[in-house]
Amino acid sequence: MRPKSVTNALALCIMAVITLAACDGANGADTHPKQGTEAPAQYTPGTAAPTSLDEQDRNALEMAERACANRDFQQLFTAIAISPAVRRKYSAPTITSAVLDPQGRVISSRDVPANSYEDFPVRQVDFYYKPAKPRSPGDEDEYLDIQFNQSQSDDFSVDWARVHYDGQSEGGDDLGNIISPEGKPLPPGTHPDSDGQLLFRPIGNCWQLQEDIRWLR
């Protein structure tokens, strides 16, 4: 398993090397709120939501607005995982999609217009995060282990890893223990190596998706 300190260091390195360049090129100016202003600017979506929305999208958009008002990133992420409409609204005009080796070196990187980006890896099912595309097609028992990391500049990296659970719950509604790739339960409080990271940068009074990074296995 990759130590957590290494994962966080890589996330910060990626933000510094890839995210800064991608964000500056896409936005052309620093979008962080300035100290001393009376109030932060309200979030302006980079991509308009479709005019016709179903109830799930409408509810998720309202959830996202509440999350921004409350500065609750995890609630915003849940809304993004639920609804493509939310995902479009809270994405940068261009998303950097990169593949890194286990040491954090960039193997490939490309910029994808937000209206063409269809690779968001996370979906919300009931109360759980699941992969948008299971490693094995039809594997309904594959879930995602999600870890949120916040930088001092209020950037967020979301580490995600494909996992299965052993179903040995201690009486609650949880799925039990995470099963390691070797088929053994992981010790409580530990997490598997990340399969990818999603990087979000603050803009106005909220955040937007800037990068989708995958680890080469």
Task: Give a brief description.
The chain is built from four helices and nine strands, in the order H-H-H-H-E-E-E-E-E-E-E-E-E. It is of the alpha+beta class and 217 residues long.
Commentary on this structure:
The protein is α+β, with helices and mostly antiparallel strands. It contains four helices and nine strands; from the N terminus they run H-H-H-H-E-E-E-E-E-E-E-E-E. The strands form two sheets. Strands 1, 2, 5, 6, 7, 8 and 9 form a seven-stranded mixed beta sheet that branches. The protein has a two-stranded antiparallel sheet with strand order 3-4. A hairpin with a 2-residue loop joins strand 3 (122-125) and strand 4. Helix 2 packs antiparallel against helix 3 (73-82). It is globular, with a radius of gyration of 18 Å. The chain starts with a helix and ends with a strand. Mean pLDDT is 80; it is low at 1-43.
